[in-house]
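Fold this: Methylglyoxal synthase
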Amino acid sequence: MLKIAFIAHDRKKDEMVNFVIAYEHVFVPHKLYSTGTTGTRIMEQTNLTIHRFMSGPLGGDQQIGALVAENEMDLIIFLRDPLMAQPHEPDIIALLRLCDVQGIPVATNIATAEVLVKAIERGDFAWRELVHKYKPGADE
């Protein structure tokens, strides 16, 4: 079971909902998280249960980032709007940096999201078990 988070900027929420509908069967066995509005929209259109955090600008990105920092997240699908300035851009950059530090894959557009979901379908995420097992400091 993977821990997967969904985040979508306002102009990307419809795209996220449609994506999750298309791959709902892939997400069913996993533990799902999301920022507030994105999670609500997904749950309204699917049968998925999603743990929702606050809206991104109100701290939801940071709440997901806290799980990332503890290496408690396996994958993030974050559909960003590159053409719209975001008032909480520092939070977004911090979340992406934490993903890089922890080696957590993050898709920022629909193309990479699809590649990662296809990997989940194939069972290609066994390497996450190695990351958890051999994480520096895990023995301490």
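Helices lie at 13-22, 24-27, 36-45, 60-69, 89-102, 110-122, 127-133. Residues 89-102 form the longest helix (14 residues).
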